[in-house]
């Protein structure tokens, strides 16, 4: 098969790394890709939201399947666009329709979907700028802390956890009246704060059948001990000790089954990945949010644990034959440590040459925000730059292997957290 993969992050490098291992992949194109995908596939300078250019490329290169990595083209309707063109109407695509992608594109839509389909989630109300007084009055009746979420896509930055009533009121005004997150906060979901241990569950679905992929825990804050600003993710661990078989069974029965049944019942075309952010409170799961793609950096820890043919999984999703696919998962640990540009998630400098090891053991190096400069050097091009995944029979071994490789990678002002996985090790001991 000729496969087109859209995206440029660590998630897409992990996808590419897994896809090219399959005997069913003839050629892999990544648009736009990064310096890591360039080594194993052919990078194509296409914008992931230039739908006509993507369509032309599919025809020119006889693409047999499209895999969409990030959420933006899905929320903007790429799948619907390609299905509306006669010559790509039947093309297998891994990614939901625009309506399906609204599960991530609108927090309010997502919460209403959960309510209708009996999926456990935090209590909430949604407010617009015209309803600001009602929103402020609602805040006065809620317990603290309270969560404020921009309704639309805000690049992972649209969620605020407010500790005081004054902070909550000021934040609601900033979001609704001052457009703190632009159009994304034209509506704001005010939500009960859920306590417990957070984790991510990943589901592959063809809209009827589903496969539950390995779970993961990620680390969002920039600082060690989960301090400082939120980021796109500083590391991940899979599997996690607090997601035992009994807990996963609850997730499947209470969340996955009603979610997939709800999509089918409501006529929502959904062939892709569903990333469910969960809170485990005393062994009971509640949904924090849906995302309509794989997570990053969780993908870099989850995909290496899949032992069965990955292109077969993608085909099953895209062609509605997922029920026939046998998913095989390694029991071993995979731990990911993300290396970022100094200053991230604020402003940072780009263009520093990156020193990379010629070879690594018991780990793999995934590129995220990297590019090649005019001299052919690999340089930092984004905030999150490199994700190193270590493997091991035990968690400590996997962490040791990841950090050993991190120690061989450097560029000016590089930073990483040194405490990834330490909280889980404490639970285990």
Q: Mind describing the biggest β-sheet? A: 6 strands, antiparallel
Q: Low-confidence runs (pLDDT<50, min 5 residues)?
A: none
Q: Rg from C-alpha positions? A: 21 Å
Helix content range of the residues, please?
25-40%
Describe this structure in words.
The mean pLDDT is 96. Helix 6 packs across helix 7 and helix 8 packs antiparallel against helix 9. A hairpin with a 3-residue loop joins strand 13 and strand 14. The radius of gyration is 21 Å and the shape is globular. Among the domains are: 95 residues, Rossmann fold; 70 residues, ATP-grasp fold, A domain (Dna Ligase, domain 1), CATH 3.30.1490.20. The chain is an alpha+beta fold and 429 residues long.
Which key terms come to mind for this protein?
30% helix, 23 strands, five-stranded parallel sheet, six-stranded antiparallel sheet, Rossmann fold, alpha+beta, 429 residues, 14 helices, Dna Ligase, domain 1
Q: What's the short story on this structure?
A:
The protein is α+β, with helices and mostly antiparallel strands and 429 residues long. The chain contains 14 helices and 23 strands.
């Amino acid at each position: 098969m000729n496969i087109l993969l859209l995206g440029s992050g660590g998630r897409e490098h992990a996808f590419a790394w897994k896809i090219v291992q399959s005997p069913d992949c003839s050629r892999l194109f990544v648009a736009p890709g990064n310096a890591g995908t360039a080594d194993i596939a052919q990078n194509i300078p296409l914008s992931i939201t230039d739908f006509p250019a993507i369509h032309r490329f599919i025809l020119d290169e006889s693409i047999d399947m499209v895999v969409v990595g990030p959420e933006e083209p899905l929320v903007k309707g790429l799948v619907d666009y390609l299905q509306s063109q006669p010559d790509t109407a039947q093309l297998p695509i891994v990614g939901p329709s625009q309506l399906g992608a609204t599960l991530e594109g609108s927090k309010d839509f997502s919460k209403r979907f959960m309510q209708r389909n009996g999926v456990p989630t935090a209590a909430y109300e949604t407010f617009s700028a015209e309803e600001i007084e009602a929103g402020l009055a609602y805040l006065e009746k809620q317990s603290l802390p309270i969560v404020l979420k921009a309704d639309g896509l805000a690049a992972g930055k649209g969620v605020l956890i407010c500790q005081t009533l004054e902070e909550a009121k000021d934040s609601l005004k900033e979001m609704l009246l001052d457009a703190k997150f632009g159009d994304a906060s034209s509506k704001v979901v005010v939500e009960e704060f859920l306590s417990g241990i957070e984790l991510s569950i990943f589901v592959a679905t063809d809209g009827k059948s589903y496969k539950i992929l390995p779970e993961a825990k990620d680390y969002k804050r920039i600082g060690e001990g989960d301090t400082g600003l939120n980021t796109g993710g500083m590391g991940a661990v899979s599997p996690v000790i607090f997601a035992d078989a009994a807990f996963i069974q609850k997730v499947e029965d209470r969340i996955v089954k009603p979610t997939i049944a709800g999509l089918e019942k409501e006529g929502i075309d959904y062939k892709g990945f569903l990333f469910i952010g969960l809170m485990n409170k005393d062994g009971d799961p509640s949904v924090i949010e849906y995302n309509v793609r794989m997570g990053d950096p969780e993908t870099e820890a989850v995909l290496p644990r899949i032992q069965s043919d990955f292109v077969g999984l993608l085909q099953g999703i895209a062609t509605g034959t997922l029920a026939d696919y046998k998913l095989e998962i390694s029991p071993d640990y995979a731990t990911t440590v993300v290396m970022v540009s100094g200053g991230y998630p604020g402003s940072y400098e780009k263009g520093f040459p990156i020193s990379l090891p010629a070879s690594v053991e018991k780990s793999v190096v995934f590129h995220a925000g990297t590019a090649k400069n005019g001299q052919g050097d690999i340089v930092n091009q984004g905030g999150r730059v490199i994700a190193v995944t270590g493997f091991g029979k035990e968690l400590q071994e996997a962490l040791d292997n990841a950090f050993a490789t991190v120690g061989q990678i450097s560029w000016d002002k590089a930073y990483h957290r040194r405490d990834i996985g330490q909280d889980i090790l404490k639970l285990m001991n």
